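Re: the request from the purification team.
They wanted to know what the chain is likely to look like in 3D before they choose a buffer screen. I agreed to run a prediction and write the result into the notebook, where they can find it.
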Amino acid sequence: MQDLAMASSYETAMEALSSLITQQRRGDISTLGVNYDKLGRMLKYLKILGLEEHIAGLKIIHVAGTKGKGSTCTFCEAILRECGFRTGLFISPHLIDVRERYRIDGFDISEEKFLQYFWDCWNQLKAMVTEDLPMPPLFQFLTILAYKIFVCEKVDVAIVEVGLGGKTDATNVINKPVVCGITSLGMDHTETLGDTISQIASHKAGIFKPQCRAFTSPQVSDAMDVLRNRAYELKIPLEIAAPLNNKSLDGLKLSLSGDHQFINAGLAISLCKCWLQSTGNWNELLLNGNQEVELPEAFKRGLSSARLFGRAQILYDSSANSNSSSELSKRSSGDLIFYLDGAHSPESMEVCARWFSNAVKENTSSFLSPQASSTSSPSSFYSSITVGNVKDLCGDADTCNEEENIEESNLISKKILIFNCMELREPQILLPRLLNICASSGTHFSKALFVPSMSTYTKVTSAASIIPSDIPAKNLSWQFKLQRIWEKIIHGKDISFEKNSKMDKPETLPPYEFLYEDASHCRPSDNHIACSTVIPSLPLTIRWLRDCVKQNPSLRLQVLVTGSLHLVGDVLKLLRR
């Protein structure tokens, strides 16, 4: 009964959060509380809650950047937790449940504590609402809640990821962080931050503070010049953090996959060393290790156990495989493996393509099922799984069809893409980069599936939120546009599609034969598409893929899900059910 009441209260909290979502598009000028700018409002909210002075006592690591800031923050949290400190972590966005944004000592905050702090903040702010100071928009409220949680939980260190930009971001009410970091910069959120790397770097450098050391990952020269100039103006040192040398791990592996994570890990190491030195804990850590070492053991443990959903994550879908123990039916189903990465900028899509190409070629060692992704331990979410050595039977990078024979098991391996992105992204840039980098590594997609996300931008849901069996019909015009871009990449820019072609009228699900149809049979001018399809909903897509491997026990589907963290979160939610 108590669990039911808490679940009801939690859903009520999600409804309250949903009411804070504004319909304002990025880049629009806010009309909320016109007498205060964003940071001015944030300070007013914090004062109402009595947090203003307490925040000054938090020993904060503040991190901005375009790529890798979530990973860098996650590495920092794991390292300092392994050093024996009580850690608080605030990252965004969440993929399944809003509580993912708040970690205390490596665990998502409990529902009970979340509700306690949530309603305390909500009720106090609601009581003080005026025309000039309305309730804060969603991200501002979530940021306020983070500081409330960290103060009340008495964390030793708070690692705070910037939401968007830096200079005017809601997190930037911190006057005296211990140290600031800037991860790799690139072209993203240009509608808000500007359309040059220098303009973007200027926003990110807005988190620098007087008398606060700052570190950055290696940057292109235009971005580095802006960061250095800002540091010079503030008279603070700006140091470039070298990427981690793999040899420093003494045989251990980074828990987050991809070569780019060595850059993020290098920055995290510099930030943590600086934090330990500035708080007077570095020498004690070295004394406990009995020797001066390049990388303390606690750092190695943290780097090899950090976890982060939806970034270079591999999940084996065990529900698709119901093998019995009898020899005759030892393989009653094929393999369905999901490769999840929320890449949504040109630079991150390149990184995603390289990671996926490498991951599908590694030797099979273990599979991680969705059921194993529990909160039983901070490091239980991630396990590196690899997929068997494959031989490309087609070897033709000009086609999107591929069948690979794994000699040991005679499995037919097919690479499938599930893609969606927000309409403000540039799929005409993202999709060619993904396809070309994969193809250059010998990885070719058999099929591309363009599917709308389940998530809406008007509602905050939880892990317990009901997923309807029949998703209401959506306007699929954006998915058809993505499909057209894909087909033109595959067949050439001069290709034309018949008006009112089959591309505009998808069947609910493609037949199973579609999966095996050769790309040479693809004739868009005759309304016959063999390389891609639009599927109306994600639940239908997952069901179709599961049915495909059940139909053929010799089939291995390696499915890359990318283009949007919302899409990745939706897939994770479906796989957990």
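For the purification team: The longest strand covers residues 411-419.
Please add any questions underneath this entry.
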